[in-house]
Amino acid sequence: MKRYVADISRKSVVLGVTGGIAAYKAAQLTRDLQRHGIDVQVVMTRAAQGMITPATFQALSGKPVYSDMWDTGVPDSMAHIELSRGKNAVVVAPATADFIAKLANGLADDLLSTLCLARECPLIVAPAMNRQMWDHPATRRNVDRLLRDGASILGPASGDQACGEVGMGRMLEPGDIAEAVAGFLAPKILKGVRVLITAGPTFEPIDTVRGITNRSSGKMGYAIARAALDAGADVTLITGPVSLAAPAGVALMRVTTAAEMFEAVKRNAARAGIYIGVAAVADYRVDKPSRHKIKKTDHDRLKLALVPNPDILAWVAGRPRPPFCVGFAAESRNLDAYADEKRRRKKVPLMVANLAQEAIGADDNEVTLLDDRGTHKLPRAPKEVVARQLIAHIAKLYASRGRKPR
Ligand code: PMT
């Protein structure tokens, strides 16, 4: 089979850390941005170094950390110009009231503020301060000015503050900032396309309390929903029982059994431009689940009669005008061969193969994409990164088929 490479461009940002208590959370933010496949160059203010050491960021980002305007390690000693060139955004997190005031007034008295003024890329600011400082008319004016100058403001959130007070001013959680930045940077390659996704396991009742299910966590399907949303799609997510929070902005439908999932898919398939079946749907259900809890004392041996569930993916792909269909194949061996056989049998243009025992429940995944043109292996990566790469690949195939958004 021919091998080909999906075009997946890596994003990179300057992470500016200023001197708020929340500076320690910027270490986690560095990790979370990397988890989304974003390269991080850290620049710190002097005050931030009183909160957390540059060595921490250097170890996490794998790059020297800059804070000095005249650092000789930067070509031409022009750190304020060089560091932001070629970057996709400057993210300031945490941004103190003082730093926001500087930004709003165009002050440039240290490396980070000068770099923000000299940048060509978008500016994203995550404020963090005491609630009174946030509410102060001066801060309100400065934030308003920044917004009018085109900056994006993430947060702040309300809650317990380091000073012991409670109110608005906490920095958003690093994971939320990283998701917002990743979404901001994602190319809108599925703008206006309706994407229907199934995720998680199904649960097939045996009686009123017991059932047959599997260990799917929903992480892969939810990550794909997020990536599709960030690509500008209109996303409907039909999910089996999982404990994940759904990405804000998706139309969420919760189901329990395969039959319920099938009904929900049937109601939405005609409007979808793309269907992605990530759910681990039970192949069988109990023929006649008991309407009461089965008593152990009533049975020496208990036999369950199982009947097959409908194949949801095959049904969608077999419609007269099907959406662009993507299936997932979870196999424990002969991955490519079994997945390709499944792709042909279910008549789907793209099948994503993964090793069941390694993919299910895990945070990372390693997948192979199989379509008419051949196979392409994506390297093992966090599911968020795999999801973005997959969406990039799907968008390309979708566009190459001359599909109009629907
Ligand atoms: O949820 P996670 O913990 O993140 O794990 C992710 C995952 C391993 C569940 C996911 O990556 C995955 O592989 N999902 C598909 C699992 C599966 O059911 O594979 P399958 O080979 O049995 O099914 C093939 C395809 O047919 C799938 O797209 C499935 O959604 C679909 N199918 C299967 C049976 C059925 N009755 N109806 C279906 O639509």
Describe this structure in words.
- By secondary structure, the chain is of the alpha/beta class.
- It has two domains: 2-185, 3-Layer(aba) Sandwich (Rossmann fold), CATH 3.40.50; 194-400, Rossmann fold (3-Layer(aba) Sandwich).
- It has helices at residues 25-35, 46-49, 54-61, 79-82, 97-105, 111-118, 131-135, 137-148, 174-185, 219-230, 258-269, 312-317, 335-346, 356-359, 383-400; strands spanning 11-17, 38-44, 89-95, 123-127, 152-153, 157-160, 166-170, 194-199, 204-205, 211-212, 234-239, 251-254, 274-277, 284-286, 306-308, 324-331, 350-355, 364-365, 367-371, 374-377, 381-382.
- An eight-stranded mixed β-sheet has the order 12-11-8-13-16-17-19-20, with helices on both faces. Strands 2-1-3-4-5 form a five-stranded parallel β-sheet, with helices on both faces. The protein has a two-stranded antiparallel sheet with strand order 6-7.
- The radius of gyration is 25 Å and the shape is elongated.
- Mean pLDDT is 93; it is low at 1-8.
- The structure holds ligand PMT.
- The site of ligand PMT has 29 residues, from α10, α12, β16 and α14.
Helices and strands in order:
Elements lengths: L10 E7 L7 H11 L2 E7 L1 H4 L4 H8 L17 H4 L6 E7 L1 H9 L5 H8 L4 E5 L3 H5 L1 H12 L3 E2 L3 E4 L5 E5 L3 H12 L8 E6 L4 E2 L5 E2 L6 H12 L3 E6 L11 E4 L3 H12 L4 E4 L6 E3 L19 E3 L3 H6 L6 E8 L3 H12 L3 E6 H4 L4 E2 L1 E5 L2 E4 L3 E2 H18 L6
Parallel strand pairs: 1-2, 1-3, 3-4, 4-5, 8-11, 8-13, 11-12, 13-16, 16-17
Antiparallel strand pairs: 6-7, 9-10, 14-15, 17-19, 18-21, 19-20
The structure holds ligand PMT.
